[in-house]
């Protein structure tokens, strides 16, 4: 049992370019660009969780035809791959608002990763998604780190006077813009309309 667990841990030391389903190896898109596009897609409020996961699987497995018997395994391994080799990631994202967006903050994320690895990842023909995730988890002093720190301070109501001044000067990048679904936007529009009518 111990040997099995150790083997599973050892597998994450390898940068996979294929995933085994049953007895067959399937090539996967392992470049960081595919990973980022999927992270951006996951922020789309118009898609259900099931739709997002299915799209991610189709992208990661290079649109391969996955036999129905392996579909659930393919979905699980898609999550495993996107999480950098972890099937179940514990996260506090559900207990607090998001602090960054792969859509809005991408230029700052890329710059922070470049600084961490010491070269331009965009200048590379290929850079593995897991290498990108590792560098992303280690970003130090950067514009991205500052933006996230400021959002956290505001979220917790712990901004100092200088933090408030920074926010006012950088509101265009600091304010995290939340994309609403059509239903949510319609509800907001109806509410705003009622406010205007009430004040009219």
What does this structure look like?
By secondary structure, this protein is mostly helical. 55% of the residues lie in helices and 4% in strands. The protein has helices spanning 2-11, 32-41, 49-60, 71-82, 106-117, 129-137, 143-156, 161-169, 171-174, 182-199, and strands spanning 18-21, 24-27. A two-stranded antiparallel ribbon has the order 1-2. A hairpin with a 2-residue loop joins strand 1 (18-21) and strand 2. Helix 3 (49-60) crosses helix 4 (71-82). The longest helix has 18 residues, at 182-199. The chain is globular, with a radius of gyration of 21 Å. It starts with a helix and ends with a helix. The model is unreliable at 90-96 (pLDDT under 50).
């Amino acid at each position: 049992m111990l040997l099995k667990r150790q083997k599973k841990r050892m597998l994450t030391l390898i940068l996979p370019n294929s995933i085994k389903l049953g007895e067959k190896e399937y090539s996967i898109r392992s470049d960081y660009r595919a990973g980022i596009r999927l992270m951006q897609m996951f922020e789309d409020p118009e898609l259900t969780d099931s739709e997002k996961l299915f799209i991610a699987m189709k992208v990661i497995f290079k649109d391969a035809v996955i036999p129905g018997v392996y579909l659930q395994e393919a979905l699980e391994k898609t999550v495993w791959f996107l999480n950098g080799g972890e099937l179940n990631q514990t996260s506090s994202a559900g207990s607090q608002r998001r602090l960054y967006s792969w859509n809005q903050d991408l230029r700052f994320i890329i710059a922070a990763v470049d600084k961490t690895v010491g070269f331009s990842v965009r200048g590379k023909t290929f850079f593995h998604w897991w290498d990108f995730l590792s560098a992303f988890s280690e970003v130090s002093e950067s514009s991205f780190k500052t933006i996230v720190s400021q959002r956290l301070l505001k979220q917790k109501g712990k901004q100092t006077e200088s933090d408030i001044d920074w926010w006012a000067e950088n509101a265009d990048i600091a304010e995290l813009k939340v994309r609403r679904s059509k239903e949510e936007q319609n509800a907001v529009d109806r509410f705003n309309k009622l406010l205007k009518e009430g004040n009219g």
